Amino acid sequence: MILGLAGTNASGKGTLCSILKEHYGFAIVSLADPLREEAAARKWESSTKNLISLGNEFRERDGPGALAILIRKRLPSGDVVIDSIRNPAEVTELRKLPSFVLVSLDAPLKVRYERERSRGRVGNVKSYEEWLAIEKMEDEQNPLHLQVHACMAMADYALVNDGSGEELKQKVAAVLKGIK
Fold this sequence. Notes:
Elements: E1 2-7, H1 13-24, E2 27-30, H2 33-41, H3 48-62, H4 66-72, E3 80-83, H5 88-94, E4 100-106, H6 109-119, H7 128-137, H8 148-153, E5 157-160, H9 165-179
Parallel strand pairs: 1-3, 1-4, 2-3, 4-5
Helix pairs in contact: 1-9, 2-3, 4-5
């Protein structure tokens, strides 16, 4: 089974991936992996802003589905979750894989902001306004840039992560049962 994951910032995508890995044996691959590698090669921080910039650069150079094409070549065997799908052309490319299913994940805006603030990651946002600006960058009209909500609209299953970790586990179990 190959699950694709599209979702908003701090919606719990990493937690969902961990659930799939720890409870169901999924391997985790991210479309952001090539971007993190490129950032490291350029000696850049792997901040959200830098990864967005690099992703846009890759798509402008190699087409809107470029990251999905790169990842398709790297997929391990077995059950896999592909995280960080952020452009509709990536969904289109990944749908060429047998047994690909797209799941979207979202959470209320204020919940996501509080999660983001508590993460302590590189490039963490310093204000609500800065965070909203990054949110806006994830939904541009340019077909070569990020269009997170357009990807989410293409999902086969949509989850809202507005409760506990146990509730998210139950939602994941229901999705997997629905797929099988």
